[in-house]
Each structure stands twice: as C-alpha cells, then as structure tokens.
Amino acid sequence: MGKEIVAMILAGGQGSRLYALTDRLAKPAVPFGGKYRIIDFPLSNCVNSGIDTVGVLTQYQPYVLNEYIGMGQPWDLDRIHGGVHVLPPYQQASGSDWYKGTANAIYQNLSFLRRYDPEYVIILSGDQICKQDYNDFLEYHKAKNAEFSVAVMEVPWEEASRFGLMVTDDEDRVTEFQEKPKEPKSNLASMGIYIFNWDILDKYLTEDEANPESSNDFGNDILPALLRDGRRMYAYRFSGYWKDVGTISSLWEANMEILDPEHSGIDLFNDEWKIYSRNSGMPGHTVGENALIENSMITDGCRIGGKVSHSILFSGVTVEEGASVEDSVVMGGTVIKAGAKVSHSIIAENVVICEKARVGEMPKNGEKDIATVGSGVVIGAGAVIGPKAMIKEDVKEGESQC
Amino acid sequence: MLNNKQDALAIIFPNSYDNEVPSLVNERLMASIPFASRYRLIDFSLSALVNSNISNISVIVKRNYRSLMRHLGAGRPWDLSRKNGGLNIVPPYAEKGIKVYNGRVEALASILEFLKGQKERYAFISDSNIVCNFDYKAMLAEHMENGADVTIAYKNEPIPYGFMNLQQTQTTDLYYTLDLEGSRIKKINTNSKEYGPQNLSMNIYLIERELLISQIEKAYARGDVFFERDILAPQLDSLKVCGYQYKGYTARITDILSYFDENMKMLKPENLDALFAGGNIYTTIRDDNPTRYIGNPHVKNAMIADGCVIEGSVENCILFRGVHVGRGASVKNCIIMQDTIVGGKAELDYVITDKEVGIRPGKVLKGDATFPMFVPAYKHI
User: Fold this and answer.
1) Whole-structure pTM value
2) Is the CB of residue B38 less than 8 Å away from at least one CB of chain A?
3) pLDDT digits (tens, 9 = 90+) for A38-96
4) Domain tally for chain B?
5) Which end of chain B is more exposed for a tag (fewer CB within 10 A), N or C?
6) Is B274 in CB contact (< 8 Å) with chain A?
C-alpha cells in the first residue's frame, strides 16, 4: 500500500562553522538542549505529525548519526512497512557518486521513494531547531491545490538580504525567488522545508540530473525551474520558533533560549509535542551538600558538587565541589574538576577540565565570544582558555590559549 | 562462562514479601516499587541478568500485577523482546478452581511444562525485593567449581529490623539463614531471630533445570509448599547445596522504613557508585525533558530524575520523574514519586508521596525519621 507522505531529511551537512564540535560528527548529530541531538527535532516532528516513513540522507561523518538513529525505536519509527532509513550515497552499476547537491541527494534515492508510492514528499533539513506540525503544512498544500509548497518565516526587512526569499502575490502564490538579494522584494525567508507532489518531484529531479550545467541544488536549480514552468507554488507561513544552528553563537543562543521558554518561544517542557531522543540510561542526577544551581537544565547521570548557573548540562556531567559553570553548554560525560571555572563556553562530550583551569570569560564591553572545547580534550590543571579559543587538542597544565 | 546465551534461564518472583510493605503495594507489587529516582525494583534483577547474558526470563506473577505488566511491556527496554527466550510473564493459572499458589513449589509446578521445553542447562531463581547489580556469571562459575547441585546466594549481614518484626504466625513470608561448613550448607534456618551478622539468604538460587523439574514434581506430589524449607532443608545430606557469598552493594526492602533508608543511601556517592558500577540498569523510557531549575532554588543533597521543575527548596530528598516543587515550597527528607505536584509554600518533612500526588499550596505535612508519613497514589491534600 502506498504512503500518503514520505519525509526526506537532508542530514549530510558538514557544519564546518561549528569547528571543533563537528570534527567527528555530522551537524545533525550535534548534541542540543541537554539530552537531544539536532536530528531529534525533525524526527520527532515527523512522528508527532503522523509521518511514519522517513529517509535520512547522510554523507559527512555518518557513523555517529547512523548508530544514533539505529532502527529508529526511540522515535517509534521502527515499522514493518516504512520507518526510518539512513540513506548514504552508494555504489551503483554506473559508478558511485557523492551527493552533489541537495537535489541530487534526493535524486539518488528516488527508488527509495518509489517503493512507498507516495502522493507527497516533504523535504526537511537536519540542522534546524523547530517544533512544527508538518500535517498543518500538508493540509495547506492540499487546500491550495499546490504542486509545490515552501515553509517561510517572516524576517525583519533589514535582515532579509541574508536569506533565500519568496516573493508572493496576495494569495501567497510564489511569483519569484530571490537568493540573498541586495534589494529584497519580500521578507518571507525560506526555511528549506518543501512539500512536493510526488510526480512533480520525480519529473524535475530527473530533468535536473540530465542537465550537466546544473548544481543540483533545490534553491539554485529546482525552484527556478518550477517558476519558469509556472507551477502552482505556494508559501506556507510559519510563525513558531525556528533556528538554524549552523554557527557556534547560534548554537549557544538556541541552548540558552531553552532556559527561558516563557520568552523565547521554544518550549521543551510541553508534553503535547514531545521531542524524543535515545536515552542515556543513567540514574537521576545528584546534587551535593555545597552545590548551588540556578536557572539551569540538568539531566540524568550528572553529579553537581559546585556551582551551576544559567547553563545546560548533558547526561553524566560532573561538576566537582568548588568548580563553577556559568552561561555554558556542557555536553555528555564531561568532568569539571575542583576549582575550575567555565564561563560563556560550549564544552563538547567527554572533556576533562582539570583543577583550577579557566575556560572562557563572561563577556565585557558587549563582546559575545564563546570559547569552544572539542570532544575528548583534556584541559590541564591551571590552564587558561581565552574567550575566543577553539580547542581541538589537549592543553597542557598551566598553559594558556586565547 | 555463559558465552552461550542458552546456558541459563531465570525465574523471578515479583510478589515475594509484598506483605511487609502494605502501603507501597496497594496498587502494585514488590517488583514494581519505585527506587532511586527512576527505577522499579525489578529493573535491577532484569538488567543484571541481561548484563550476564541471560535473556530467557520468566516472571511468575501472583496478584496486583497490572502495574508490573504495564512497566514490563514486551521487555524492550531490557533488550528482552526476542524470538528465542526473552521475557515471559506467567499469570496465575485460574482454571478449574485451582487457587492462587502459596509457595514457590506450587508456582514452579505451574510452569513445569514450560521448563521442560527449554534448552538451558541451568536455572536461576530470584525474588525482587533486593536492589543489587548482581553478577550471575560469577555465581555460576562458583557453582560449577564447587560441583554443587544447588547454590544459594547470601549476604553476611544482620537480620533486618523488618524481618525481626515478622509475626511468627505469618507463615507466607519466610527468610532463611545458612549454617555453612566451607562453602557447603549444613543447615537452613527459617525465620531465625539471632542478633549480629548472619549468612542471610538473598533468595537467589542456582540449580540445573532438569534437577529443578524433578524436585518440583516430587515436592508437588507430596503437597509441599516452600522450596527452601520443604525441598532444600531436608535434603542437605543427599544434595550438595552450597552458599555463594555476595559482597557487592545490596539494598534489601523489608519494610517501609528500610525502603526509606535504602533510597536515602543513594545520596551518598560511594553507594551510588557501588550500585551502578556493574553495568547499566535499564528501565522504561518516558522521554521527559531534562530537569529545570527556575530562579535560585535551595537544593542540597538530593537525587533528582528528569522531567522535574524545581522552584522551591529541596534537601535530603529523592525526586522521581516529573515532580514539580513550587515556588517557596520546602521539601526535606522526602521521597517524592513520579508526577507529584508540591504546591507553592507547602512544607514537607519525612514524607513519602506515591505517584501523582497533589499537595496544595501552603500545606504542611510532617512525618518522623522513624515513621515517615505516607501519602497514597493520586491523593490530593
């Protein structure tokens, strides 16, 4: 039996602007929000929207992501017919290709889609933080009798030129697409989330592939081709929380916004739209005699002996007595030893910050630098890591890096 | 040992000692009592078995087992949802007017046909009132080394207060102390009142499956009730029954006070390390968000699971998943089970709340260190 809709998540992003954090994992696998990874958001949105067939297109550093998704059970996506499938580029009789662009990634998996004989295909991005009901989007697509729909956000006009923009008529039918224009004609930014009628997707991807001039990208090639042919294209306005966490500062910001759901609009504490993730299996966190915790989020397996202020701690983080963590994101398994001080930083998984080391600084004079320490790094006792530092390798005792 | 997963199966009795903790088993049984912020007692037995590569596990339930069934489901969280073996829940056989069994003999007799059809050479038998990360492999190794027919795990410790208080007339809840000569058991004492450390049985038994079947068949025909008292104790000369001393961390639940104290012991890092060192303990996943601390709440010496929202003060407490401590509330020396809401400015001291309890704002509830106050599930105060 055919599926009404199949989701394809583009998860090949290298995330090179996340530097030390994406050295060993793809961007969608980057930990987020205390116990999640970025990919949990589109996967959970799919399940909550009633989409039970999902392809995850991976390319760069896929191992962590592959293992994490596994059979898809944490998202209830282990299904007999459908479920979640990781789709890496593969060897074909005609030779193997890396995914050349976003459109090519889907093109190479048209046979996967054909298996489910879908009416619609939704293309999602694996590196955005957003709680969105794709079912509302699909209803809109159907109501407009559209062949293609794109989810858009209204952005401030002064920032519009940083985005791909949809110029629309009164009915929200797309009349023009502007990619990062100097003179924006619209403030409707594309979220990179599309719904295609299956036959349209199949036709345009196949034609695009046959064109040797094409960069095989949805924004550059497919959208212009649809416009050229006068296809029924509509913009779907989304007004909830949405964040592309492609940079260290946006990743840090989005984490901090979780601590303030009353104002930021991203509410992980709402049971109506749960975000699922693979569980650490650790016991509840413990808080010691002399600990101090304020405005923070702490999860299973943490041991708090020191001070934690306005921070997010992932599973199994230890903050020893006399250590302090402020305005920071500390990922799973990291140990912050006695007397160490971590401020305004992102610390990746399984880092050891030894006694009396200092990482990052609280911002002065409006600077917003975020010190970043990559996974598995050991910061020696008494070492000092400056607020602009990106640390990928061990730092010796007493050394300083800025 | 146990390289081959077919080597041993396990049989768990989840209702043993239910009578000792009446308030906690009002709507559940011993095995599904919550422990250490996010687990149920049976999680420890199941996880330790799975970590020892034993994945054919039968749970023989007797009464009040709905909450356990809900918790166990198809056994997936413990990786026990499998084609061969896996989790096998055996409800009482309620046909032809057969009454619900009393002792282990009747219970085991009810699964004889199942046992005969299995392939494993050995069978472990266990209760679920002891929290520990038991090493079943080590016990089997010692069993084989001793050439034993039956091995009983024991811990050298004083008889718990809850057991000492058992009424002599209460015949269903028995405990056993072992007199040993070397590793061989010379005598099994029932409900001894000796003071000081004893070789107190953990009620974990290891026996060859074929031997178990033949012993149960004989005992059932005789009308015997208790495995230990009626089968093992009289045959200590003809069967080689050995003791296996367990030296790891244990928390034995024998009454409401020991339940309270053993939970509180988890606040000491050395105890937590000792219990969780031997491998992961699995439980059902609720997909709660991480716990959120709002403002600057006073939190000291506490164990807190995910899904909680902490706005008030928490000291010397165990908080289970989804608990909300309101602004200005003070929760001290308490065990607060899942999804309990403590209203603003409420004060709780030495209180155990069962799940989904509501404490209205400003309420004051006080128990005592020797007698914690218990609030039953779903109660609103």
Assistant:
1) 0.92
2) yes
3) 999 999 999 999 999 999 998 877 888 899 999 999 999 999 899 999 998 876 666 65
4) 2
5) C
6) no
